[in-house]
Structures are given as C-alpha cells and as structure tokens.
Amino acid sequence: MTREDILKPENKVAGKPALMNDTPMHYCPGCSHGVVHKLIAEVIEEMGAEEKTIGICPVGCAVFAYRYVDIDWIEAAHGRAPACASAVKRLWPEHVVFTYQGDGDLACIGTGETIHALNRGENIAVIFINNAIYGMTGGQMAPTTLMGMKTSTCPYGRQSDLHGFPLHVTDIAATLEGTCYVTRQAVDTVANIRRAKKAIRQAFENSINRKGSSLVEIVSTCASGWKMTPEQANKWMAENMFPYYPLGDLKVSF
Amino acid sequence: MSEKKDYVLLKGNEAIAKAAYRYGYDGFFGYPITPQSEVLETLALDKPWETTGMVVLQAESELASINMVYAAGSTGKCVMTSSSSPGVALMQEGISYMAACEIPGLVVSVGRGGPGLGTIQPGQADYYQAVYGGGNGDYRCLVFAPATVQEMADFMGLAKELMFKWRMPAIILSDGLIGQMMEKVVLPDYQPRRTDEEIREQCPWATNGLGLKNRRYNFTTSLELEAPLMQDRNRAMTAKYDEICEKEVRYEEYKTDDAEILLVAYGCSARISMSAVDCLRAEGIKAGLLRPITLWPFPTRRICEIAGQCKKVFAVELSEGQMVTDVRLAVEGKAPVALIGRSGGVVYSPEEVYEEVMSQI
Questions:
Q1: How many angstroms separate the Cα of A59 from the Cα of each of A49, B122, B230, B309?
Q2: pTM surpassing 0.90?
C-alpha cells in the first residue's frame, strides 16, 4: 500500500471526531482531559445527538471544555454543575445533559449539589475526572488526594490528623437510590480507553432514555501537578491510584 | 358598562406563584425560607406541570436554586426563584454569573429584618443587596418594588418582558409585609409558554442545541482571561445599563405638584408614607410622595426636579439607611435629606412617620 492509498478516506481506521474543532488545547502533555474530551465528542457524534446535547463545564482545568467540542455548553460556577444540569434536563427532557467535573469541583465545593442531583435521580450523566489534585490552581490538595501524597497545600504529605481522609464519592453515589449507573474507568491504555468510551456512551444513553443518574469516574493523571513525566504519571496512577480507586462498575441498574 | 373583573383574595407570595404559571414561566427552583415559603408551597399545590408544563423543583439550597435559574435561563427558558434575605445572600454568586453572561432570570426577594439570620418580620434592609449587588464585579440587576399584592402579580409580567428584552437578571424586591398580607387581586390571563421554535427565533444566544447543525455552537461563560477583552465586555454591559437608565425608570407620584416636603419610599413603606402625606396635608403641610417602582434604574432625575421646589426630603424605609443614599445623590444638595428608618422587623405607623416629619420641619 502506497502512502497515497493510506491517506484515502476509505482506508481511515481512526481520526478526529468532526465535533472536535482545531482550537489548540491548553492541557498539559500527558493529561487525561484531552482523551476524555475526544471520547465525549465521538459518543455524541455516534449517537447523532449534536442538536440534543447540552454540556455543563466545571471550574478547574476543564473550564475551557467549551472551546474544543462543538456543542452547546454552559460554564457553571465552581461545584454547581449538577444543579445546572438538573434544571436543564427537567426543561429539555429529550436532551442528553451531562456535566464534566474534576475532583475539587464535584467532591469538595460541589458535594451538596452532586449528592442531591444524583439522589433525586436526575436524568443526567456526570463525568468525573479524578486526578487527586487541583490542577488549574497549581496542585493543591483535593478531597481525593491519597494519604501521604504531597501537594502544594500538604507539602509533607496528606496526614489524617491534619487533612482528613480521601473521599470515596463514587462509592457514596453507588448507594444512592437515584443512581442507575455508577462506574470507575481510566484512559491510560487503549483497552481502558475503549472501556471508558463504552461507559460514557451508556451514561449518555441513560440520560436520553431517562433511566436515572449516571456517574462515570475517570481515574486520571495530572503529570504537571504530580511533577512527573506523562509516562511516570501513568505508572504512578496504576500503582497508587487504582488500588485505592479500583476500576470497574459499582452499580448497574437500568 | 364597567368591565367585570374576577377578584381573588391572595397573599402576596401566593400571587407571585399563580402569576408565574399564568405568565408562562417555564420553571421555578426554590428553597424554603420564611417569609416566602408560600411561593413554593402554592406552586406545589397548584401543580402547574400538569397544566402549563411549568417545572417546579425544591432544590437542596439557595446556591443550587440560583444556579438552576442560571443554567435554565442560558437555554432560553423563562425561569425564576424566590427567597428571603439570608437566602438571597447565598444567591449572589449566581446572580453575578447571570449578569456576566447576560442571562435572563428572576429572583423574588421577600425581605426580612437583618443582618445575619435577623428576624422573620418585614424588612427593607436588602436594598443595597438588590440594587448594588452582593456578587462580585461590575454588574446591575433590574429591580422592581411592588407595593401591593396586585403589583406582586403584575410585576411578574413586567420582569419577564424586561429581563428578556435586556438579557439580564431581574429582582422583585418585596418584603415580608407585602408577601404575607392578603389583598384582592386580578390575576393575569394565561399566556402560553414559548415553543422550542419561538425560543430558537427569540434567543439565538441560547445553549440548547436547537439547530446546531446550521449555526456555530453557543456557550455561556463569564470567563475571559484577556484583560482588555474582559474590559470590553464590561464596557458593553455598562453601555446597556446606561441605556436602561434612560428608558426603563418607573415611579409613581402622589400630591407632588405643589409639594414642599417630599417623602421618597418604596414597597410597604410607600403605602405607610401615603397615609402620612394625607395626615400632613390635613395639617396644612404641603407634603407629597414619590414612590420608586424601579429601584434600579432609580428615578434620580425626577427626584432632583421635585427636590428643587422642596424645603426638605425624607427617605422612609425599613432599614437604618440604604435607599437614603440614592435619594441624597439624586437631590444634589438642593434640599436637606433625612432618614425615617426602622429596622430589625419593626414597622412604623403612618402617625409615627407623620410625627417624625413634623418634628424635623
């Protein structure tokens, strides 16, 4: 096969989804956000739901999510995305409505909104990027920061007597009657990316079919915040994050 | 032949609720707090979701309520919340976001005595909160001050019209007295909620996905990291605010033609002041009342004109002195300005206002 043959559209095996635009991403090399954005764009495109999807972006690194995926977006105040999504979905019941939130947003400042939206069984999908750190503000301690993990606000490592314990917010979500699908995924390997995409698709289907609340946690890297290379970050995540936040479905009832 | 009107006897808070679905509001998101809980209670009882399709949701907090209003408003829907003083304090974050993103949405604020938890009796000490804003940044809200239960209903329509016309948050600043008091009221005729097609035509900025394949995608955000661009955005909004000050000022006058003593009061204080004006007139004092209907934009120019013929101007309000600041600015030193204030839930009688005026002139 010549180079020209390879470039023919019919021979294309992978590509950028049409909903991803050409705006240069502000994410650091090795960050999980870019991969998850692409999966969301692919899923919406495959569902043919471009005109029936409303995304709610967070405060945090994904604050500019609306710049990269060509759907209608609402930028929420820090932590308020699940409240925003609740109202939007009730007023647009035929739409896919999803939030995209980090750990500080979803599990700290927005814990109340998260728990109550999920417990009301709002027909929304919540995509939860858990990288155990506040990336955007420069690497501070998050509710999901592991014990002993060093951040700029626990420079000697997280200690229970000073900082309390990591919050298992996804496990809490699985106990709520309003949730129909709670799962924990990652995007560090091709196999995991495929599983994560399937989970996002399921959560979006649940939203449009009004099956209840879905939460898809993506255990993620923050190479810059963790002060590692992208490769080291993936390795560190597998060795330290996965034992504490094990991948797999926590609840499937739809 | 006089037109027959269907009067009903309602509390101010009930009138708000019933006017909401009759004016075709799409959604209400609220949280209980005295003295405004009847708004949510009336909606829950009347079940408008079965008739007009209006969504009613009891949120987990005022923070959630206002952010529900923000997001639903972003999609082009006509939505509202209601609360009282400490609850409205929590909403300031969302109100600032709404103003920044030029999102229409209504907050009904039924004031009580403060600060802090304060009391549950009527108060007008949230004038600064509504007019000057407790949220961050340079922004304004349209602020309407009803003085009757009828106006509670009527201003629901006015607020809907103007908040979409100008794309900004609106506040109906009431108080526990008007909210809890029962009066006869004529409710508006039913207006249909807007269809998706109407929203698409009227709100091309809305983030609802409609027609996405034939347009650029929309996003609602207040974030702008380039300082000069952020300034441009603020200046565009300021130009809009200046235009509103020219076009949307509303007020009512009572016996001001020959007034030498001017009382300026809004909401329940205006009703009390009106009786006080009659008491003063009975004593041969040429008193008059100007009642701001819009607190922002404030009737600055008209107050200035009347002040030119006055010996003294009084601001009458249920606070230790908030609106009086705007009255002083409006009067421009043409007459002395004094405050007749009560606070913490204490309400004056017309006689008390009369006596305070008499003791100071």
A1: 25, 37, 18, 54
A2: yes
